[in-house]
Write a structure and sequence with these properties.
Helix content: over 70%
Strand content: under 5%
Structural class: mainly alpha
Number of strands: 0
Number of helices: 5
Shape: flat
Number of domains: 1
Largest sheet: none
């Protein structure tokens, strides 16, 4: 069964967001169990990201993974952790979002066979 790489990338992003939120809640790893769960979430996220790299170019996957993660963590920081941002910071984060959306709309996924033929392996 082949999973849509964009869906898998979305799931990877969710795990990264959970990991980052838990890392904040671990209070500098003084709450060890929460910190360990955060590291596990990062591990799952990275594993899923690595699978998407078989079909989506690394520059695109990573840009979207990072950009969407930044946006989500910014919102979580504002809502859950009562952190505030200045106008220029909000503008820069919005530019990241625009870039991630643009990359998603202009990128075609690769099949593993095409990717292998481009590197000369079979």
């Amino acid at each position: 069964m082949k999973i849509n790489p964009w869906l898998l990338l979305g799931i990877a992003i969710v795990f990264e967001i959970i990991g980052t939120s838990l890392l904040k809640l671990s209070d500098g790893f003084t709450r060890v169990f929460i910190g360990i769960i955060a590291v596990a979430m990062y591990g799952v996220s990275t594993w899923m990201l690595s699978i998407t790299l078989t079909q989506i170019p690394v520059a695109i996957s990573y840009a979207i993974w990072s950009g969407v993660g930044i946006l989500a963590i910014t919102l979580i920081g504002f809502v859950a952790f009562k952190q505030n941002l200045g106008g220029m910071q909000i503008l820069c984060i919005a530019l990241i979002a625009i870039g991630a959306i643009g990359l998603n709309l202009t990128t075609q996924t690769e099949t593993p066979d095409i990717a292998a033929s481009q590197t000369g392996s079979s």
